[in-house]
Amino acid sequence: MGGKRKKRTKIIKPKPKLPKTFECPRCGRIAISIEIKEGIAKIKCGNCGLYTEIEVPPVYDEANAYGKFIDLYLDGKLDIKESNNENQEEDNNESSELHTST
Ligand SMILES: [Zn+2]
Q: Ligand 1: distance of its center to the CA of 102 in Å?
């Protein structure tokens, strides 16, 4: 018998990452998203553009990181960066000079 390898169909399930959002201590909106990578939690507010990174233990999940973030924020120990707004803002092109004089 030839070594016919049974092909195992790999089903790669893309994990439906539920975007966990938390309340922003600055603007009060539930717009904080947290991404933890290699011990660094990247915290970003989709509303006001608050952005910061904090170190978290590997066991931390987003909720833990958020708790630490809030503590640091309230203590004023946080190094807040502003994320450049990459939000797709509806920019109404208000051209006030529509009057074309001929
Ligand atoms: Zn905010």
A: 48
Greater confidence (47 vs 95) lies with: 47
Q: Which pTM does this prediction carry?
A: 0.63
Question: Domains in the chain and their CATH numbers?
Answer: 21-82 (2.20.25.190)
Ligand 1 center to 9 CA (angstroms): 44
Closest CA to 64 of 13, 72, 84: 72
| Owner of token pair 């203590």 | 75
User: What does DSSP assign to residue 84?
Assistant: P
Condensed to tens digits (0 to 9), the pLDDT of residues 21-31 reads 999 999 999 99
Q: Distance from the CA of 19 to the center of ligand 1, in angstroms?
A: 16
Cβ burial 75-95 (10 Å sphere, 16+ → b, else e): eeebeeeebeeeeeeeeeeee
